[in-house]
Write a structure and sequence with these properties.
Structural class: mainly alpha
Order of helices and strands: HHHHHHHH
Largest sheet: none
Shape: globular
CATH topology of the largest domain: Rna Polymerase Sigma Factor, Chain: A
Strand content: under 5%
Distance between the termini: 50 Å
CATH architecture of the largest domain: Orthogonal Bundle
Mean pLDDT: 83
Number of strands: 0
Number of domains: 2
Number of helices: 8
Low-confidence stretches: 85-104
Radius of gyration: 17 Å
Length: about 180
């Protein structure tokens, strides 16, 4: 961190290599795959680079990067909602539900993943944020609260409401 903050490009490149998969996971969990996700991933590291000298180490680098990525992802979701008038998140024109002949699984597994993803996409931004952090990223309540800048109780109540909505939406899937 110190070397990167002083302008050492190889040190910064190493930080990117260490944390790019975590950033990508959060971004795609929030906004899906596509150009927006690529842009948010890149912008996350651009902002990280510009703020390195201000990083105090109160949280881990991963937590700091996750917060940047989460905030940028939320901005994208807000822009989508504003420009489209409705939210159909987590999909791009290139997304398909067609199973490729590879290790991704059977058509049924792909269909199940697509239906779960679609249900998560229909959550509001607050619900989606906590589901991505707590369930998909397996972050603690404390970490999620720190990343989102809210109290731990808020994380727990948002997660409870989001999981209740997901349970209702996915109940038919569980009976199949």
């Amino acid at each position: 961190m110190t070397r990167a903050a002083k302008g050492d490009e190889s040190a910064f490149r190493r930080l990117v290599e260490l944390h790019e998969s975590a950033v990508a996971s959060v971004v795609t969990g929030m906004i899906g795959y596509g150009d927006d996700a690529d842009d948010v991933g890149q912008e996350t590291f651009v902002r990280f680079l510009s703020s390195l000298s201000k990083f105090r180490g109160d949280s881990s680098v991963r937590t700091y990067l996750t917060r940047i990525a989460m905030n940028l992802s939320i901005d994208v979701l807000k822009r989508r909602k504003k420009t489209l008038g409705w939210i159909r998140l987590g999909e791009s024109k290139s997304d398909t539900n067609i199973a490729a002949p590879d290790e991704t699984g059977t058509i049924e597994q792909n269909d199940t993943r697509a239906r779960v993803r679609s249900a998560v996409d229909r959550l509001d931004v607050n619900g989606r944020s906590v589901v991505v952090l707590r369930i998909l990223e397996e972050r603690s309540t404390r970490e999620a609260a720190e990343i989102l800048g809210v109290p731990e109780g808020t994380v727990m109540s948002r997660l409870k409401r989001a999981m209740e909505k997901l349970e209702v939406e996915l109940r038919p899937l569980m009976k199949e």
